[in-house]
Amino acid sequence: MTGRLYQQDSYLKTFQSVVTSVREEGVVLESTAFFPTGGGVEGDQGALTGDNGARFAVVETLDREGEVLHRLERPGLDVGAVVNGELDWKRRYLLMRYHTATHVLCGVMFNDYGVRVTGNRLTPEKGRVDFSFEVFDRAVLEEGFARANATIEKDLPVRISFIPAAEAEGRPELFKLESGFRHNLETLRLVDIVDFDVQADGGCHVASLKEIGKLALKKSENKGKANRRVYFELES
Q: Cβ–Cβ contacts within 10 Å for residue 142, how many?
């Protein structure tokens, strides 16, 4: 995980690295700031530029057996090539805002109402979260959004830390998913919205809550017993 630069600095927009593997799907780098699709969050896009100036668009970033695979618009990079990586920062920053917004909303729903998450899907255009309600109450959902926005207004800092996975086993509050945490890792990365909520998470987040903007509830729909799908957008 040490090669995943975004886990230490989500604001890193450019970096230099070396191609360690070339596959039919794309290339693997020694280290990267590109976040791969995972945890319901879309992966990064951007570009890799070789030392000869050739530019290769990164159209998708994926996690393949623990390695970050950069899918390119065309082949042309070889193993050992030095490349300069550049994120599509506007897109990444939107995803960061949506991701942290989801942590706030899920924190409110779990801490205040005991409602867990069964799934989510975050894009630069909208967020979708599936909540497990024993009995769905629209008023509770709307109040949850209001409380989430009130929390955002406090502009709490967001901090990153790492702990041994064994230490996390006795802290169920770190896992908001209904299914718990399913990854076999020795070390867990924590995203801590100070004095509000902390979760085990490997993704990219803003540094303070006011960067999020405001959550706007768009619609909710029934996706089966005790499962309510909620759509929201961010407003500046």
A: 12
| Segment 176-187 mean pLDDT | 60
pLDDT at 178 over 70: no
| Residue in the block written with tokens 């070789």 | 50
Answer whether residue 65 shows pLDDT above 70.
yes
CA distances from residue 14 to 6, 17, 33, 85, 86 in whole angstroms, order as listed: 11, 10, 7, 5, 5
Domains, the chain, ranges and CATH?
Answer: 10-87 (2.40.30.130), 92-235 (3.30.980.10)
**C-alpha 87 chain-centroid distance:** 15
The residues, ordered by sequence, that sit 6+ positions from 184 with a Cβ below 8 Å of its Cβ are: none
The pLDDT score that the predictor gives to residue 228 is 93
